[in-house]
């Protein structure tokens, strides 16, 4: 269905609220008595209010659908701009229909209903580690930056006013300062809306994002202070009042934060006990967070800070405590509310603009405001960055500063604040309102439109024009991974000391109170894996991770994935279509890699080249530095990173277990017992009846239990002298030799996790190592994943094989049946 | 930890000359070394490094950890630690001898040695394939990967031997800004 009929339908629908609105005001009240029983009646007044609200929401949502029908438009124009234009259009219709501006964005509706979901969404999905790691910078920009913007803008406007260019206005210095304070704040709604389109690096993102959230405290304080100053009159403003203003800043901000933290604590605590009321679990998140917002508002503290910190602090515990489905529900609902609220905000911004009563035009004022806020923003950012770069590990470069300055958008918060002004106290309120509207429109539309090309231009300028060759891509990616690792090792990222202290505190006290027992246990096991390399727990974790994260990780073993990218026979058509499919998919956000690919696609005739580049492009693991799509209003990120992380993590853990074993075994012969022990435990965990020599376990079923009891110290490879020698007989020696051979195989073989020996599983999978070493095919990791614990189901798994060498795993699956079924290791262990 | 952190490691001056790191940077590294050394053993074990969460999610983590423990050693003392990390000092803007540990050449050599497992000074096709396999998702079929590796080798191998020597490798990546991509500012 093309855009045109949709537009027509939309227009028709749009007329509806307008006319209905008119009908409500226009229809005379029928005061005469009804004559007879009316079977049906038209009870418009009865449903008027909810009906109109719902209709507007419907219109906004339909508008979104219509916008996204055209990829070309949405790629260039940010959605927020489109919504504003739509709002203007609708406002025009309403105005034309009945010369009343019946719908405006009232501050109450905005502050009570539209803003909280957005801020909660921001807080709940905030990448905490990044946020707190950059908190210093964020605070600097939020506090000092906003104060700077407010002061300079206000004072400059006042200065210009004194020169008389603006003509005569009923304004004093305080009014200008008030205006400056409300126009200075960078708006979270607008910033996010635009930054989603422009993928920037994570540090930059979090700084702008964090700044837009935290500057609320400053804005609230400045606004209130100056408003009351204006009310009490300039002559009464003494030093004491100013001092009070400064104190109120600290009270408001810290108080708001504390309120948020308190409610986060409450929420986490409540979520701990909701095991039996899973259906309403998600509700608690919203209710308690909203309460934090309202409570802070009631106490005249910063409500945005409260709800932000409520979201930030409760994330971890709530996510650990509530069930998987509840977590999904919470995520989706939050996104839906936030996205919906944002849509409505922008649309109503447009509509509210069509209100000639408020329009006061003063060219100088408006123009100068625009100029001043832009210029002072740039100056402020440059100065602060210069100061910060002395203290920061990761420097903020010129391009970052450009994006930060240019991305300082004003939005609905400014508009709502200005609409709150009292005409009696602030005489030139209408002028302020008009100016604010123009500023908001300008920043959102113009800056939103142009920021993407700007970033592109700057980035592309820095990078080479020649597309990178294969080796450069490959080794470049390796460099990135290496650098990530070295950064981790050298502790460059983040303030580790504080973070360690915090995580200790958290582990010892907070988590015990706020997290469910089961969640604590699994989390503790993860820590054990990290710290102790305790074999049993490592395997448990792997299994747990596979079980829990299974939806994303265990993808259906269908040929779907292979169909899209068919590399086995690179026919040009397939390759071209799959590449173009990819290009179309990624058309939305700026993705310079894809552009490079596009260029290469045009210039390279060689199909093989395209295939290899395409392979790398699509499948290379991303290093940490590349922009993770950290936050999105409009999508739930079932991110590729999760899958990548899981794969890498599993592979790493397996390798560690291997190498760990091999260091113990390969070096020291006497430790073959550990090997058996570990292998047996591995077997027990995996519950496979397949072992290299089926005879052995049936000889020693008792010893297996005995082995299980021995909790040997695995963590310290050096201190391994205190093992009891167990009498296991010659079979054990044979096994030892056999398995030792397995491990020495691995380093030299091609390190393919699909085919590589896996620790706990390989020994049983490589069931005939004396026959063949490298040709033995082990089912791919995904196939293994699906192997359940009880041996009875083993046979069922034959269709689930995922490796390319199809028949081999049939052999595999057939293999275990030949083994003596008498050995059932799983029955008693774990 | 406070008292220990203040004590400078022995041989600081010599280490500073050798690695090219400033004494202040070495002190920072020493603090980090002590923080990583969880049981205050005075040296690092592989488990200490592997305990870092971010590292477990890095495809090349095993290789990199291996770089700190050459030849299967289980202990890494502070000079070893510092020497490895010295490779990542930003070379630009600092007085840099061409052969110093932080020069682009030695950065490349560090990477080369990560690839070259058997230490013969050549990256064979298999070694390249291994590294590639590490860095790529599981769903990539072997044929595709083999094609990629073969092509990469072909492009870089100038001598036609089928393996890459260090010079080939360096030439292949000469366009990349090695210094920028393999430096951490902390060490400046």
* Class from secondary-structure proportions of chain A: mainly alpha
What are the segments of chain A in which pLDDT stays under 50 over at least 5 consecutive residues?
Answer: 22-29, 527-537, 551-605, 667-830
Quote the beta fraction of chain A. Answer: under 5%
What spatial order of strands do you see in the largest sheet of chain B? 1-2
- In round numbers, the mean pLDDT of chain A is 68
Question: How would the blueprint of this fold be written?
Answer:
The complex is a heterodimer of chains A (830) and B (188).
Chain A: H1 3-26, H2 44-69, H3 71-76, H4 79-97, H5 107-124, H6 128-133, H7 135-163, H8 173-184, H9 188-195, H10 202-232, H11 239-272, H12 281-298, H13 303-321, H14 324-353, H15 363-389, H16 398-406, H17 412-419, H18 429-462, H19 470-490, H20 496-514, H21 517-532, H22 535-548, H23 550-553, H24 560-564, H25 572-585, H26 592-603, H27 607-619, H28 640-667, H29 672-686, H30 695-699, H31 701-709, H32 730-748, H33 759-765, H34 781-785, H35 806-818
Helix pairs in contact in A: 1-2, 1-4, 2-4, 2-14, 4-14, 4-18, 5-12, 5-13, 5-14, 5-17, 7-8, 7-10, 7-15, 8-10, 8-17, 9-10, 10-11, 10-13, 11-12, 11-13, 12-13, 12-14, 15-16, 15-18, 17-18, 21-22, 22-28, 22-29, 25-26, 26-27, 29-32, 29-33
Chain B: H1 2-6, H2 12-19, H3 23-36, H4 46-50, H5 53-56, H6 61-68, H7 78-86, H8 104-115, E1 122-123, H9 125-135, H10 142-156, E2 164-165, H11 166-172, H12 178-181
Antiparallel strand pairs in B: 1-2
Helix pairs in contact in B: 6-8, 9-10
Structure characterization notes:
The complex is a heterodimer of chains A (830) and B (188). Chain A is mostly helical and 830 residues long. In chain A, 70% of the residues lie in helices and 0% in strands. Chain B has 188 residues and is mostly helical. Chain B folds into 2 domains: 1-88, Recoverin, domain 1; 100-181, Recoverin, domain 1. A two-stranded antiparallel sheet of chain B has the order 1-2. In chain B, helix 6 crosses helix 8 and helix 9 (125-135) crosses helix 10 (142-156). In chain B, 43% of the residues are buried. The interface between A and B is large, with 79 and 68 residues.
